[in-house]
């Protein structure tokens, strides 16, 4: 199916990941995971910078939108690169990178973390088949319960991860599909935080979650001696944590875009103020080609003259010169 400004919002989230990763696939094959993640982190920091600058009178919002689009491209490329079986080595990158893997695709991560309920204040103590449809996506009440300020132990976090996954499995038929549906659902659940927090606050939360993902990646291959006796169980528990932290990043990204809608005070969604899909299309979409393209070389598969130095002979030759 060809893409356009009118159809991009209806694209399945996992298809969106595939469409985005295809633009820079030639270069990204040569990029280690940490290269891709560093780019994502760079643009997350740039989002915070542009959010801060918007406090100045007359500051343009266009640069922030560009950074949101760039960040989303790198974030979804990271998710694409993290897919695969634990222990499966890709290319010639460090062996330990084969342990840094997520358990499913993007929509799986989001649904397992947010199965129609806030994982902290609305998710049941035990998942049961009696979670009614009308209860899904009700507004988060963490502000009232001070859930965000409670200290959560590692065991509590792991138990919550199992509960949300059981709840997700019981309600699998109610999972949002398209990128716009996901944004509407997350916005409905976290409307209070979008109203309460400033754009800068949301940007800082996004950066905080990026740090949690980075820590989650490192913990996939860094262990204490005492953990090695039950390594497989520990590894899968850490993988669930990495899944959830990536889902949290995406959730805060959608909240950030929703905050732009409030700032613009414009309810005409066709202008793209409230939709991540439209921000992406503004920066990378081409209606004539019916596809995303590189915004530098305007090719559906980037042909920019980029050389990534991965080969030792290249590096040795560089210094010999």
How would you explain this protein's 3D organization?
Helix content is 55%, strand content 1%. With 321 residues, the protein is mostly helical. It has one domain. The protein has a two-stranded antiparallel sheet. Helix 1 (13-23) crosses helix 4, helix 3 (33-53) runs antiparallel to helix 10 and helix 5 (106-113) crosses helix 11 (231-264). The longest helix has 34 residues, at 231-264.
What's the total count of β strands?
2
Q: How many domains comprise the coordinates? A: 1
Structural class computed from helices and strand pairing: mainly alpha
What is the average of the pLDDT values?
Answer: 87
Side by side, the strands of the main sheet go 1-2
Order of helices and strands: HHHHHHHHHHHHEEH
Helical segment tally?
13
First-last Cα distance: 49 Å
Q: Ranges with pLDDT <50 over ≥5 residues? A: 265-273
Tell me the helix content.
Answer: 40-55%
Relative strand content: under 5%
Largest sheet: 2 strands, antiparallel
- Rg result: 20 Å
* Global outline: globular
List keywords for this structure.
2 strands, two-stranded antiparallel sheet, mainly alpha, globular, 321 residues, 13 helices
Architecture blueprint of SSEs:
Layout: H1 13-23, H2 25-28, H3 33-53, H4 62-82, H5 106-113, H6 142-145, H7 154-170, H8 179-189, H9 191-196, H10 199-219, H11 231-264, H12 276-284, E1 285-286, E2 291-292, H13 312-320
Antiparallel strand pairs: 1-2
């Amino acid at each position: 199916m060809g893409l356009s400004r009118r159809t991009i919002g209806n694209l399945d989230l996992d298809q969106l990941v595939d469409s985005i990763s295809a633009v820079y696939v030639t270069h990204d094959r040569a990029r280690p995971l940490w290269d891709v993640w560093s780019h994502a982190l760079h643009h997350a920091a740039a989002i915070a910078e542009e959010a801060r600058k918007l406090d100045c009178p007359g500051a343009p919002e266009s640069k922030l939108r560009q950074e949101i689009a760039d960040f989303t491209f790198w974030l979804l490329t990271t998710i694409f690169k993290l897919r695969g079986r634990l222990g499966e080595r890709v290319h010639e990158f460090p062996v330990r990178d084969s342990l840094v893997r997520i358990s499913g695709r993007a929509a799986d991560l989001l649904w397992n973390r947010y199965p129609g309920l806030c994982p902290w204040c609305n998710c049941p103590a035990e998942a049961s088949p009696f979670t009614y449809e009308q209860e899904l996506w009700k507004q988060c009440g963490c502000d009232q319960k001070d859930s965000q300020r409670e200290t959560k132990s590692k065991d509590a976090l792991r138990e919550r991860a199992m509960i949300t996954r059981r709840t997700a499995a019981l309600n699998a038929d109610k999972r949002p599909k398209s990128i716009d549906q996901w944004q509407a659902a997350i916005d409905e659940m976290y409307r209070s935080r979008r109203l309460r927090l400033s754009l800068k606050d949301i940007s800082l939360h996004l950066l905080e979650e990026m740090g949690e993902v980075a820590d989650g990646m490192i913990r996939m291959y860094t262990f204490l001696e005492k953990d090695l006796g039950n390594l497989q169980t520990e590894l899968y528990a850490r993988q669930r944590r990495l899944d959830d932290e990536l889902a949290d990043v995406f959730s805060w990204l959608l909240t950030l875009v929703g905050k732009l809608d409030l700032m613009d005070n414009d309810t005409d969604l066709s202008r793209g103020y409230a939709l991540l899909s439209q921000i992406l299309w503004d920066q990378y979409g081409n209606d004539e080609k019916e596809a995303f393209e590189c915004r530098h070389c305007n090719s559906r598969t980037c042909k920019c003259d980029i050389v990534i130095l991965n080969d030792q002979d290249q590096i040795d030759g560089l210094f010999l010169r």
